[in-house]
Inverse folding.
């Protein structure tokens, strides 16, 4: 059975008041009873002390009953309570409620609780039913002393019916108040409930429209009445809003993370050509700050007509536009710029963006520009093209010679005893050159793959250089070149000994090949921040300044004709560079044309 919220509200008021009054009445009754009894006890004790002062020890010792009877009768009339005088043996000497002739018939009071306490020098208090007076009585007993000797007990008794009468009056008042409060609660609850129901019903209707708004609250309500329906509606609305906000925040965070972490530069433009936002890559490329360019026209913020034309074309055509642009300022790089139009979300269903653009020119809401750095790609393409051309050229020359001499031999020169051996020697030399070229290419390819495993050992560098020099004695003698090994005697490195020998061999070979007659080659070392720098200096022809930056490139030769004449492949220095870099080192050259060169490399100890 469904109970309306109005009745629940009324009964809740009545229930609360009923419970509240019940607790109040219970604790009030208990406290009043205890306080009344405590006050009576305190009053009786004070009166007992006053009465005790009026009784002389001599009358008790002599058991002067007549005097005691007269005294307590007078005092009892004044303090309105029963007074009993008892000696230390429990015998009643006088009682304000008994006649003198009835005293001897009274039973001994020695074992009454209050008397027993008084006889041990304490204030005796007891509440019990009096068989004599047939009512509940409060008893208070005090010891009577003479020179610290206990000679008797004075006892006062008061009926508790006055306390009960007072408590009954209070109970009646509380009950009357409870009935009045319940009636008032019913009337007031009816009025408040009627006023409460009307706005709640209106709120239920309004809250259903708020479920699509920005309201954010939760109501904990499990009842099935009007409040429960309202709570369910509001909670649904709040949940919808929370979900939407969370979804929007998550999407924004994802987009911001993607936008800021892209290596490509990204620019967001509105349909009027104003910059909405740029990512950190664009800031780095054009040396600008986002806060300084947002809200400005593109050309005002970034002065590049090529990119501006791409943006304009995308906004006008409604199609993606791509272009390759070479920048000179602020950086010299090559970029691929892609501009994609952004269409308004209001594009009608079933109509593609191009059709929508033709229907309404305002459908395009902006443009997304992505700037991709392709400088390295273009450089690698150039390197690859140069490499293919160089390899083709290097292979073609010896192959053409070999083919020519073989054809000459096949056409009859094989029987020419004076020249055939010379022809075969030339073919052999070119075959050796091809073999050397292929070996260098394979070696370089292996080094560039980074898959090579270095077998590092610690060895004496000076001794290694001495061993390499010994293999060039005939070449040194032929050109009358003096070579000096000035490396420190104790110098050592941890490296791949075989690869390192290849480095030294190539550098010394170049120093001899491109040296002058009666020149010199000097090998020495320097210490740089805990690393060892090996320098190979020669007195040769030197390298022009314009060629120095490219000297370590593959197939790069300063003097191509002389290099081929001397048997070089153009790969030696490139191999040197890769081997040193595999050892976490670096290479370089210092040279002046006509005054020799200094090739150096640095290795960790």
């Amino acid at each position: 059975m469904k109970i309306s919220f109005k009745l629940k509200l009324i009964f809740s008021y009545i229930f609360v008041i009923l419970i509240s009054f019940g607790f109040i009445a219970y604790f009030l009754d208990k406290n009043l009873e205890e306080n009344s009894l405590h006050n009576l006890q305190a009053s009786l004790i004070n009166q007992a002390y006053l009465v005790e002062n009026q009784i002389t020890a001599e009358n008790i010792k002599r058991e002067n009953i007549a005097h005691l009877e007269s005294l307590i009768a007078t005092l009892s009339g004044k303090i309105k309570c029963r007074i009993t005088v008892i000696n230390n043996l429990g015998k009643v000497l006088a009682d304000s409620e008994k006649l003198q002739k009835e005293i001897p018939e009274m039973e001994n009071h020695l074992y009454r609780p209050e008397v027993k306490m008084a006889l041990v020098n304490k204030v005796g208090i007891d509440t019990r039913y009096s068989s004599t007076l047939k009512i509940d009585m409060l008893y208070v007993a005090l010891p009577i002393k003479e020179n610290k000797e206990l000679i008797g007990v004075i006892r006062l008794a008061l009926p508790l019916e006055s306390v009960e009468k007072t408590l009954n009056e209070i109970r009646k008042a509380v009950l009357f108040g409870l009935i009045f409060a319940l009636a008032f609660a019913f009337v007031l609850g009816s009025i408040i409930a009627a006023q409460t129901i009307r706005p709640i019903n209106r709120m239920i209707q309004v809250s259903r429209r708020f479920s699509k708004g920005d309201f954010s609250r939760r109501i904990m309500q499990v009842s099935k009445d009007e409040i429960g329906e309202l709570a369910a509606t509001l909670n649904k609305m709040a949940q919808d809003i929370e979900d939407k906000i969370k979804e929007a925040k998550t999407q924004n965070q994802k987009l911001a993370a993607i936008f800021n972490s892209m290596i490509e530069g990204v620019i967001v433009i509105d349909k009027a050509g104003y910059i909405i936002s740029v990512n950190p890559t664009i800031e780095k490329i054009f040396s600008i700050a986002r806060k300084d360019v947002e809200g400005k026209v593109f050309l005002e913020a970034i002065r590049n007509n090529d990119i501006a034309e791409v943006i304009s074309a995308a906004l006008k055509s409604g199609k993606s536009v791509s272009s390759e642009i070479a920048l000179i300022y602020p950086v010299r790089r090559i970029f691929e710029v892609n501009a994609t139009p952004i269409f308004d979300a209001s594009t009608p269903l079933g109509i593609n963006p191009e059709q929508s653009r033709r229907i309404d020119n305002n459908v395009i809401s902006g443009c997304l520009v992505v700037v991709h750095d392709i400088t390295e790609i273009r450089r690698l393409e150039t390197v690859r093209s140069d490499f293919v051309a160089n390899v083709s050229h290097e292979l073609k020359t010896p192959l053409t010679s070999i083919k020519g001499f073989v054809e000459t031999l096949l056409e009859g020169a094989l029987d020419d005893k004076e020249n055939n051996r010379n022809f075969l020697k030339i073919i052999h030399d070119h075959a050796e050159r091809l073999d050397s070229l292929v070996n260098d290419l394979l070696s370089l390819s292996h080094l560039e793959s980074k898959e090579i495993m270095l077998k590092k050992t610690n060895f004496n560098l000076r001794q290694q250089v001495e061993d390499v020099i010994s293999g060039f004695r005939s070449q040194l003698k032929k050109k009358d070149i003096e070579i000096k090994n000035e490396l420190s005697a104790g110098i050592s490195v941890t490296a791949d000994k075989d690869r390192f020998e290849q480095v030294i061999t190539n550098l010394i070979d170049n120093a001899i090949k491109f040296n002058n007659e009666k020149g010199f080659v000097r090998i020495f070392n320097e210490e740089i921040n805990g690393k060892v720098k090996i320098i190979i200096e020669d007195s040769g022809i030197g390298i022009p300044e314009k060629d120095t930056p490219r000297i370590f490139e593959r197939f790069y030769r300063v003097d191509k004709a002389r290099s081929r004449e001397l048997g070089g492949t153009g790969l030696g220095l490139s191999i040197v560079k890769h081997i040193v870099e595999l050892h976490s080192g670096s290479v370089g050259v210092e040279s002046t044309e006509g005054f020799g060169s200094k090739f150096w490399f640095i290795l960790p100890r």
Summary: The first strand starts at residue 82 and ends at 87. The CA atoms of residues 26 and 171 lie 10 Å apart.
